[in-house]
Every structure is written in structure tokens, then in C-alpha cells.
Design a protein that fits this description.
binds 6-O-phosphono-beta-D-glucopyranose; 8-stranded parallel sheet; alpha/beta; 473 residues; 4-stranded mixed sheet
Amino acid sequence: MIHKNLKKFPEGFFWGASTSAYQVEGANLEDGKGPSCQDVKEVPEGTSDLTICADHYHHYAEDIALMAEMGFKSYRFSIAWTRILPKGIGEVNPKGIEFYNNVINECLKYNITPIVTMFHFDMPAALDEMGSWSNPDSIDWFVNFARVMFENFGDRVKYWLTINEQNVLTLSGKVIGTLHLPENCDNELREIYQQCLHQLVAQAKAMVLCHEIVEGGKIGPAPNIALVYPASCKPKDILAAQNMNAIRNWLYLDMAVYGKFNNLVWSYLEENDATPTYQEGWQEALDNAHPDFIGFNYYSTMTVEWDNGEEDIVKGGDQQSSRGEKGVYRGFKNPNLPTTQFGWEIDPDGFRSTIREMYSRYHLPLLVTENGLGAYDKLEEDGSVHDPYRIEYLQEHIKQIQLAITDGCEMLGYNPWSAIDLISTHEGMRKRYGFIYVDREDFEIGSLKRYRKDSFYWYKKVIASNGDDLSND
Ligand code: BG6
């Protein structure tokens, strides 16, 4: 649809950006924080560990002041479970509560609305030793953590996100260092989907608890949603795209919104003898939970073709790659899309179609919790960082949000990845996303000084005009 008259971004639109605790904070074992799975994992060769990151733990006031200078209306960050509960359960660490109180209060000082992710890839290592998400007790562990957060921060934090990219935990857990498989596991797929069910039930219970404890609290999931295209108009490619859409996207939102397991995914699991087992009360918990909005991360679409099930498919790939599943779908390189320096496809139009599809399926307000471009940025001698490629990427995606708003989709905000440079999930510090440059490399820690990139000044103008002025002059 070509619109002649574009609708405006709504008043109160949450312009901001995102980070996650384990990628930005550093101070990973300081002030009583316990280790998470990210602290004990082996990092990919050639990339930094997660001990210092952007040292946001010590620079949070300066960082939030810079966000305020850009005019942020919201800041999406995650709370490290092990800073609050060093062993995941048991004693609360007062220093952890103090740190997040400081972060929240600093945001509120500048009228920045805190949007808190409760879990972003960082299971406490102590709970990993007890089986991590494979243990059905993980549901209670998470709900207990949720209660501690709601009771301590719920007077000031009104926007909550449950589990970041639960679908990525399921589909790419090995790559991002989160998958824990019990020693006696004889059916990996069944194990992974059993863990997935535990996460979904934990999320459902946390949503109900939020509504009970947090006055005026709003809560939603935050999966990574990427509409999956068929490689052609061959009917079988359409079926393949439906398969992957169900497995990658709809399972998570169908469960969060309707409490129902997607039938295509269920039949795929049946085929592999991998259906998860429900315990008493779990379906009821899923039925009782009602998100107020859908948070979602979008980087690009995916494309797949039919797979006849005859040849093996090499497994693996990260958040944005779609290698395939034998007899279900096969990943296809979309020839119409450019890629980033790190090989991720760039598809702004696909952002709009993803939004449209989600809104028409679920009819809930949508909050963009991530979107962005990872690139090698260069700090110039005069302290400037010229990142026109990032500005262009963001410009094109923001245009699509406005088109989606004009299409009638209800959009709450835009919080791209990332507010400030931080460590990538598996590609180190060199893959930068921030509006703010942090002076450090993968192995040379540098001064950790902050520098405003060109995109910083550009985004400031975008926010000041409430999205009317996207130009880069
Ligand atoms: C999302 C995650 O998958 O994408 C973030 O929620 C992550 O944690 C971001 O950093 C970008 O991915 P990457 O792999 O480039 O860091």
C-alpha cells in the first residue's frame, strides 16, 4: 500500500535504546554479584570475555546523562539475576538492589521511562549446576526472582519484559552460550523444547504476578521476530515458510498471548518424538496470563525453501541465520537483500511486514525492543565517529514504523540496539551497535572514555522532532 498521508508518531512514543546487563555492565563478580552462565562459558576465540564490557556498572550515571542528552524517553536494560540473587535463589544481595535503584532513579531524574528485561541470556551459574531450565523447578526460581524485582522496583518500573529472545534460547542456545544439556540427554530436541515449555510457564506466572504486585504494571514477552519469506511462489516454498514462521516466531507469541501451543510446531515435535510434557497446573498458568503488549527484537527477515528431507542439513547458525531442518525447511540466501559487515541481511520493508503480520495476529500494542546495525566503527583522532551506515539503517527502519502506524498498527516505541557500545553475543567488542562509542577493543581495555558518534547527534534530532525529521544533514 502506498500511503499519500503518513500518520504521525503518537505522543509519548518511547524513543530510546537498549542494552543487556551481561553485555554492558562488567563488574561481573563485584559487590557480591554471583557468576552467570555467561561468566563461566568459554567465549568464542578472538573475542573479549565479559568481565569489564563497557563498564556501565561504574559509568551508569554518565551513560544515562548521555542518553538524556539524546532526549531518550525510555531506556531498556536488563537486570542481572546474579546481581540480585548471587546464587539464583536464596539470599538477596543488597548491593545489587542498590545498583538498580540507582539506575532506575537516574533514569527518572531525566524523565526516561525504565523498561526492564527480567532475563537476558544470563542464567545464574549456580542454577546451571542444578539443571538450569531443564529442571522444572526453574519455573519457581524465575518466579521468585520476578517477585524480588517487582517488590523492590515495581513502585517505579511500570514496563517489564519477561525473557529476551526466548526463541533464540531455543534455536541458537549453543551459539549464545545459554544451552545447558543434562548429561543423560538422549533426545536433544525434546530436551530443548521441554526447557522452552518451562520458560513459557515461568513467563506466564511472572506476567500474572506483575499484575498482582505492580500497580499499573505492564508486561510483555520480547522474542526476536523475523517474518520468514518463501524463496519463491512455488506452493511448497510457501509451506516451508509457514513451517519456519511457526517454529521461529508464532510458537512464542501464540503461547504468550493465547496460551496455546502452535499446532505446526507440535506436529513437527511429534514427528521427532520430542513433544514436551506438561505438569498439572501449567496449562492453567498459560491460560491465565495476558500480556499488555508485545515487545520484539527485529534485525532482518529470513528466507527459506522447501526441503524434501533427502539430504542432511548442516545445523548451527546464529540469531539471524536459517540453516534449516530436514524435511521442514531449508535456509535460502535472499538475493534481494544487502548484508551488514557481519553478514546479517538488511530488510527495512520486512520490518513493516513483520509488524503488520504480528499486529493482525495478536492485536496488541507493539514495542520495538531491539533493531540495529553491528559494524566496525572507527574513532577518529578528533574524537568523532562517522557511522553513516548506521544512520541509514536506522532511518530506513524508522520510516517503516511510520508506515506501519499508517497501516493501523499500534506502536508503543522504538528502542534500538544499542544505547552504547557493548560486547556482542558471540562476535566480541569489534561488532559495535551503539550511539555512544566506548574506547576499548576486544583485548585492549583502553580508557573506556565515551564518545558521541554521528548517529548520536542524528538520533537526538529524530527524537526532538518526534520522528518528523529523519534527515542527516
Ligand atoms: C539480540 C540479542 O539477539 O541481538 C542481543 O538480544 C544481541 O543480546 C543483539 O547483542 C545483537 O546480536 P549480536 O550477536 O550481534 O550481539
